[in-house]
Amino acid sequence: MSVTLNFILVMIGSALGGAGRYAADLFFPYAPPNSSLPVATLAVNVIGSLLAGLFIGLSLPGGPLYTTRGTLFLVTGFCGGFTTFSAFSLHTLAMLQEGEPYLALVYIGLSVVLCVIAAGIGYLIGAEM
User: Fold this and answer.
1) Hey, which of 40, 48, 86, 97 would disulfide with 24, CB 3.0 to 4.6 Å?
2) Transmembrane segments in this chain: where (predicted)?
3) Is 80 among the annotated ligand-binding positions?
4) Rounded to an integer, what distance in angstroms lies between the CA atom of residue 107 and that of residue 102?
5) What does the buried/exposed string (b/e) look like for 23-32 if buried means 16 or more CB atoms within 10 Å of the residue's CB?
6) What is the pLDDT of residues 27-62, one digit of tens each?
7) 70 annotated binding-site participant
8) How many CB atoms lie within 10 A of CB 6?
9) Which of 47, 63, 65, 68 is nearest to 119 (CA)?
10) The pTM is what?
11) Do residues 24 and 86 make contact, with C-beta atoms less than 8 angstroms apart?
């Protein structure tokens, strides 16, 4: 039953994260105007990295989420369903195919730097709670 419950928690978390990902596409159209910078994908990956770091920090021994199930639901499930490396890769490929190599490099740089910083900030916040 334990493994089955873990799968159910991951599936529910993934469904909620995926719904959040779709909502971000609706609320964050391509911006700035006349640009093909995929703001929604960048936003969910940065926010998801922040949340993943926060949840891992909160799951340290003695923390409020110090359970395997909480981590499975929030990190593996929700953050896994919310963030999207495949969309990041496809957006980057599209920029390169459309002759926008500099925009692709900016997007790659922003994604990597902001996501790592966000994960670190989230972890530090979670570890202090």
Assistant:
1) 40
2) 39-60, 72-96, 102-125
3) yes
4) 9
5) ebeeeeeeee
6) 876 666 677 788 888 999 999 999 999 999 998 888
7) no
8) 16
9) 47
10) 0.82
11) no
